[in-house]
Amino acid sequence: MIERHRSLGPHSGLEPSRPPVRAEVDPVRRRMFASFSFVVLAAGVGVSLLTAGGLESRYTPELLFIGPLLAVGFLLAEQLTIDVDVKRVGWTISFTEIPLLLGLLTAPFEVVLAANLLAGLGAQVGRRAATHVVYNGGVLCLEIAVPFAVANLVNQALIGVAPDWFGPVVGTLTSPLISCGFALAALTVLGGAMKVAAGARLAGRTLAVGLLNTSVGLIGYEVAIGTPWGWLLVGLVAVAVIGLYRAYSDLLREQRDLEALSDVSLSVARSGQGAQTSPDPVGEQAVPVGEWEPVAERIREQLNATRVVLRLRLDPRGEVTTLVAGETMPEAAVQAAPDALRDDPLLQLPGSHVRSFRTLEAPEEVRRALRQRGAYEALVVPLRGASQLLGAVEVHDRVSRWRGFGRADVRLLHTLASHLATAMDNRRLLARLRHDAYHDPLTGLLNRTGFREISGNELRAGRAAVVLRVDLDLLTTVSEALGYTWGDRMVVAAGQRMREALGDAPLARLEANSFAVLLLDHTEEQAHQVALRLCDVIAMSYPLDRIVVEAAGVAGYASSAPADGEAETDVDTLLQHADVAVRAARNGEDGVRCYAPAMGQVFLRRFQLVTQFRQALDTGQVEVHYQPKVALPERQVVGAEALVRWSHPEYGRLDPDEFVPLVEATGLVDALTAFVMECALVKIRQWLDRGLRMSVAVNLSVRNLADETFPERVAEALERHDIPPELLTLELTESSVMADKERSLPVLRRLHAMGVVLAVDDFGTGYSSLAYLRQLPVDEVKIDKSFVLGMGTDLSDLAVVRTIVELGHSLDLAVVAEGVEDDAARDQLVGMGCDVAQGYLISRPLSEERFEAWLQARTKRDRGSREETVLTLLH
Predict the structure, then answer these.
(1) Tens of pLDDT along 302-338?
(2) What angle do CA 652, 658, 663 make, to 5 degrees?
(3) pLDDT tens sequence across 442-501
(4) For residues 518-549, b (16+ Cβ closer than 10 Å) or e, as one string?
């Protein structure tokens, strides 16, 4: 590989050091360069012969001393070079003009040519860059022959006018121009020609450096021959100049190394920016190998190596990828097995420092590995991340210095490897964070965000899609009975089953036991079949250690191209529609339903009721109606039950059975209870002010009984309205108490201790046992209206009612019968000894104004035994 122009013309003062030329150039251009090299050699030999024939040679005994000194001078000039690299533009500064000028002033042409050939070709062989010896030999001849010819012509033309050294100075300045010119020509032949302006600037810089070196050489020569002990002075100055050049070279190298570190870090960062940002449907992505080529190339350029090999773990599975920059490497050495970083003798690298290997010094197994790679020398360093080995970097055969890699190269490679490992670790961390942002940590499937991203991209691309939602049923029961760990195991197993059944289709876990699938280019019929298959798959029994858990699956799906032809491109809307279809599927036969607009109307209405309820309370849409309660057999009105009603501006009068369960499910029941209780207490206060002592019953929810602060709020309300607590009745259902007895019973005991009347509503439909009633601090029971309505025709209902009355009285509880709609039922209740009746026979629930009117029209005022006013129902 032609790495630098320096290897094409070793005696130029300032030359481009990194042309874009590689061994893998076009074979036609290789043949062209071979022909060009022979032409250059022929020209060099021809010009040398003509120059030797045209010059007079004077051989003196001093030449036995001067000749070797010149050879040493040319060799030192060849080795004491400065590589200048600024922003990817490189040059090589050498001192070749100094020994050349001394040779022109002190020695014949043949001696100087021999010294130059010996030093130049020897240095090329020492650098293992002898592949272009034909070209370099021709240039070496021209770099000596042309300056001698020019110097001779100038001295003859300006004899007696110019000093003797003028001709050699002019001749010396032609040498770097010749080397630069032939190097540019070689680049053109190889297909890497520079622009004319760039070539002109390079020639100007070459001439400037050549003039500087020539001036230094001439001054040193004049001082040496004209001053006593001048050679000593020149030697001291030479040492100082060489030290200055070397210091400047070190500064330039440090700058170049810093730029290389920056370039490598930026290259890794840019390759990270080019990675796909959308989530992978299956897992993490492998980084494209091509993105690391600039990194490998920059390391090769910085260390001036013939080849750099990166062995990296870019695949999430940990497989090793090998990338070669520079000269080609045998295929057997490129193909790295998955365990190459562990088994290759060159890559068994403990720690993180750089190892240097040379063929002549290494053990046999290392020499074998180097020969397999086609390398003589190698620097190898591992890339270690925070928790694992990320790869390794191999640098083969430096060509810019004959002695091989030095300490500065080792330090630079170590720093580069540290930066590269840190950048790779950060990139892997970033990729992991991106993966976690789009994937569910429990199952490894996509999460809602990842599913929305992938589905949104497909829909925006115009793909027809069906969003399928699948729910694993009975999960809550399993979690409560066995613990959430078992429930999580069922979710993971269900996800794996669906993953296997679906293949590459995007599958996500939305939340808890709900999954979503994106089916591309599927009709609704095909989606229905997929949904049935998935439901069957996840409904299969789950063996959990020693037990087997049964489950069921329900599914709903929505298409982006509905029947009305209006394509839907919003994935959130499709997910909502699929969720609506899942809810409808729970009532279906096969557990799978396709979304229909009519389904959405039902759930939209429920959603509107929930969101508008708080406003309805504030705007007076919700009001309290009262249904009177009459004591038996005296038929005295003892109070009323407060029942909530909602007059919706759009849906009209709503049945409590429609909106109360929604209110309870969404946590708004506290506001509803507070509203009803406030209205009831205001009403009681109004009656008390009129001399009427009647109670009002308010229904409680299971959420009220779970609120430890509820008794304090009741006490505060009673005190605020100055109402005796026995005039407030709080009704609760059996199921609401038994849902959480540990929290409900303390609340009930505190309410009972305050004097508030507690009643069990709908008694007979739940637990309904003597043991159950004995543990509750209640004052009355209300017989469910279903038994009261049926006792006239069903003997079993009649027996239930009689039993409840007897049971209540045995526990010193008042008994209230609701649902009394005819005289026969009332008479039967009187005969059983029931205490209070409530139902349509007495009155329907009435608004506050109509209830007051009912009291005026249907009751008469009497004086009670305690001289209080009582209202007796008229016949």
Answers:
(1) 777 888 888 887 766 667 778 787 777 766 666 554 4
(2) 105
(3) 888 999 988 988 888 888 888 888 999 999 876 555 555 556 677 788 889 999 999 999
(4) bbeebebeebbebbeebbebbbeebeeeeeeb
Token pair belonging to 630 = 């009459």
Report whether 814 contacts 617 (CB < 8 A): no
In this predicted structure, what is the pLDDT of residue 661? 78
Here the tokens at position 686 are 């109004």
Rounded Cα distance between 32 and 544, Å, is 75
The DSSP bridge partners found for residue 653 are 647
Cα–Cα distance measured from residue 166 to residue 108, given in angstroms and rounded to the nearest whole number:
17
Average pLDDT on 587-591 reads: 73
Contact 138, 43 (CB under 8 A): yes
Collapse the DSSP code of 150 into the 3-class scheme (helix H, G, I; strand E, B; otherwise coil) and give the result.
Answer: helix
Which contacts (CB < 8 Å, 24+ apart) does range 724-728 have?
A: 724/755, 725/754, 725/755, 725/756, 726/695, 726/755, 726/756, 726/757, 727/639, 727/684, 727/688, 727/693, 727/694, 727/695, 727/696, 728/677, 728/680, 728/681, 728/684, 728/695, 728/696, 728/698, 728/756, 728/757
- Residue for token pair 């070539």: 199
User: How far apart are alpha carbons 305 and 299 in whole angstroms?
Assistant: 8
Cβ–Cβ contacts within 10 Å for residue 789, how many? 18
Report residue 725: phi and psi, to 5°: -65, -25
d(CA 307, CA 398): 8
pTM: 0.48
Q: What is the pLDDT of residues 599-657, one digit of tens each?
A: 766 667 777 777 788 888 888 899 999 999 999 998 999 999 999 998 888 888 888 88
How is residue 421 written in tokens?
């490992």
Q: What is the DSSP string of 722-754?
A: T--GGGEEEEEEHHHHHTTHHHHHHHHHHHHHH
Residue 538 amino acid letter: I
User: Tokens 């965000």 belong to which residue?
Assistant: 449
Helix (H, G, I), strand (E, B) or coil at 128: coil
The three state secondary structure string of 456-495 is HHHHHCCCCEEEEEEEEECHHHHHHHHCHHHHHHHHHHHH
Cα dihedral 708, 712, 718, 722 in deg (nearest 10): 170
Helix (H, G, I), strand (E, B) or coil at 23: coil
Would you say residue 439 has pLDDT above 80? Answer: yes
Calpha distance 343→381 (Å, rounded): 15
Classify the phi-psi angles of 80: left when phi > 0, otherwise alpha if psi is within -120 to 50, otherwise beta.
beta
Cis preceding-peptide flag for 633 (omega within 30 of 0) = yes
Q: What is the 3-state secondary structure (H, E, C) of 498-529?
A: HHHHHCCCCEEEEECCEEEEEEECCCHHHHHH
* Region of poorest pLDDT, from 21-30, 237-246, 368-377: 21-30
Mean pLDDT value across residues 857-875: 78
Closest CA to 43 of 121, 125, 134: 134
User: Which residues have a Cβ under 8 Å from the Cβ of 154 and sit 6 or more positions away?
Assistant: 162, 166, 167, 170, 171
Q: pLDDT higher for 812 or 57?
A: 812
- Give yes or no for residue 565 having a pLDDT over 70: no
Q: pLDDT tens for residues 48-92?
A: 888 888 887 777 777 777 778 888 878 777 766 655 443 333 455
Per-residue pLDDT, 178: 85
Between CA 126 and CA 347 the distance in angstroms is 28
3-class DSSP assignment, residue 38: helix
CA–CA distance from 73 to each of 102, 112, 125, 274, 373 (Å)?
Answer: 10, 11, 18, 52, 36
